[in-house]
């Protein structure tokens, strides 16, 4: 038994699986079995262990990071500079720095710890199964009529019950499901046996249903556009048919009575966006107004922003009482300024670019659809950050950068000596 435990503990994959179970472990330790100190710092401990494995892999020199390393270094230097130049608000600056860069470390972990395509396939399956659990809980909440907190229900809407599972909110669950559903769909298309196809079909349908029940419009739109991009990469003709089907679906949805279960709720959530009342409330104190405030903060300090942890997020809320920006990129625009936001968007874009190159090089591989689904999930999360602070949620940020690092590793291995 002792030898088995030591063997598992000496493998980085074991700790990566624990990282994939982050939302479950965190919920249990904080809500069900709270343990002093452990409940608050278990995730930092896990990241330190994985960072140790990462350093070992780095010094072994099996993989050299491509040009994205220059952006990473520049972005890190900018963050350190912003942190140390605001000594008057040192606590907020340090916490703001940690809230951004602590999770980008997962990119390095993914890049240096990937061992094989088979390992990545197993990690994707682990990611999908944990997501399935979260989605199933969300669906059961709606079935059982668990009331959604009022802060997540917009006044005048027909919906009063939104799935939120054991994660932060319906919007976070929506983003989580937008990540998992394409991954599960890719695993379904890749599955060699009927039994496996049934399993991944159930996971896909459950996570899609949970996504619909969150009522998260941003996640819906992000996944829809992401699916279009995936289809475009795979087959341009199918992408065209998807656009046509989407147009027909929206027109048909307009004529559906709001009394129709689920479909009527979706209609209400979508078409409420185009009402004068919504636009007015959004401009006064809602999402559009918050984006305007973030933009105004940038105008005061256009190049370097107002400082890390100073606007639009959890850290700024605790230290300065500012409200959330409802957009991670607008929050970053206010805190980093133009230079920082360009670097951040550049990092995300370069990572996705590597992903597309890997996928296009594996069109004849049995892993093609699985990787295409993973890309679709990551792309949906990136898009959702335009309208939500998704990267403020630890496990979502870790998933995004970790699997982005895996894609970067695949890109390097393909352009150097290895061929998957």
Automatic annotation (TrEMBL):
Membrane protein topology class: Multi-pass membrane protein
Superkingdom: Bacteria
Subcellular location(s) per record: Membrane
One Gene Ontology CC term in the entry: membrane
Pfam families in the cross-refs: Wzy_C
GO molecular function: ligase activity
Keyword terms: Ligase, Membrane, Transmembrane, Transmembrane helix
Keyword Nucleotide-binding: no
Domain O-antigen ligase-related: 203-345
Keyword flag Ribosomal protein: no
TM annotation in the entry: 12-29, 41-59, 71-90, 96-114, 126-146, 173-191, 198-213, 219-234, 241-257, 336-356, 368-387, 393-412
Record PANTHER family: LIPOPOLYSACCHARIDE BIOSYNTHESIS PROTEIN PA4999-RELATED (PTHR37422:SF13), TEICHURONIC ACID BIOSYNTHESIS PROTEIN TUAE (PTHR37422)
Protein name: O-antigen ligase
Organism of provenance: Brevibacillus centrosporus
């Amino acid at each position: 038994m002792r030898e088995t435990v030591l063997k598992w503990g000496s493998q980085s994959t074991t700790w990566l699986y624990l990282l994939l179970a982050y939302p479950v472990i965190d919920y249990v330790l904080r809500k069900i079995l709270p343990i002093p100190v452990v409940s608050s710092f278990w995730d930092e401990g896990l990241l330190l262990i994985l960072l140790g494995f990462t350093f070992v892999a780095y010094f072994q020199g099996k993989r050299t990071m491509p040009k994205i390393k220059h952006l990473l270094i520049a972005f890190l230097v900018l963050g350190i500079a912003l942190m140390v130049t605001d000594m008057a608000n040192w606590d907020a600056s340090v916490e703001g720095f940690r809230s951004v860069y602590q999770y980008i470390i997962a990119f390095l972990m993914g890049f240096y710890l990937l061992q094989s395509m088979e390992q990545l396939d197993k990690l994707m399956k682990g990611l999908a199964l944990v997501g399935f659990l979260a989605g199933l809980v969300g669906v059961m909440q709606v079935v059982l009529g668990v009331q959604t907190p009022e802060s997540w229900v917009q006044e005048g809407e027909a919906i009063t019950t939104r799935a939120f599972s054991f994660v932060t909110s319906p919007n976070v669950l929506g983003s989580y499901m937008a990540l998992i559903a394409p991954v599960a769909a890719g695993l379904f298309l890749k599955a060699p046996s009927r039994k496996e196809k049934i399993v991944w079909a159930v996971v896909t349908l459950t996570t899609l249903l949970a996504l619909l029940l969150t009522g998260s419009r941003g996640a819906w739109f992000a996944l829809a556009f992401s699916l279009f991009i995936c289809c475009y990469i795979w087959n341009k003709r199918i992408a065209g048919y998807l656009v046509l089907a989407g147009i027909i679906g929206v027109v048909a949805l307009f004529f559906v009575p709001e009394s129709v279960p689920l479909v009527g709720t979706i209609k209400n959530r979508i078409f409420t966006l185009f009402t004068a009342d919504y636009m007015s409330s959004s401009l006064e104190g809602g999402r559009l107004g918050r984006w305007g405030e973030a933009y105004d903060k940038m105008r005061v300090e256009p190049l370097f922003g107002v400082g890390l942890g100073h606007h639009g997020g959890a850290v700024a809320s605790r230290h300065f009482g500012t409200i959330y920006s409802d957009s991670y990129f607008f929050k970053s625009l206010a805190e980093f300024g133009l230079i920082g936001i360009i670097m951040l968007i550049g990092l995300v874009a370069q990572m996705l670019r590597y992903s597309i190159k890997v996928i296009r090089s594996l069109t004849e591989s049995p892993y093609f659809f699985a990787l295409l689904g993973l890309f679709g999930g990551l792309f949906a999360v990136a898009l959702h950050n335009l309208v939500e602070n998704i990267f403020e949620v630890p496990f979502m940020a870790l998933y995004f950068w970790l699997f982005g690092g895996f894609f970067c590793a695949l890109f390097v291995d393909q352009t150097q000596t290895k061929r998957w």
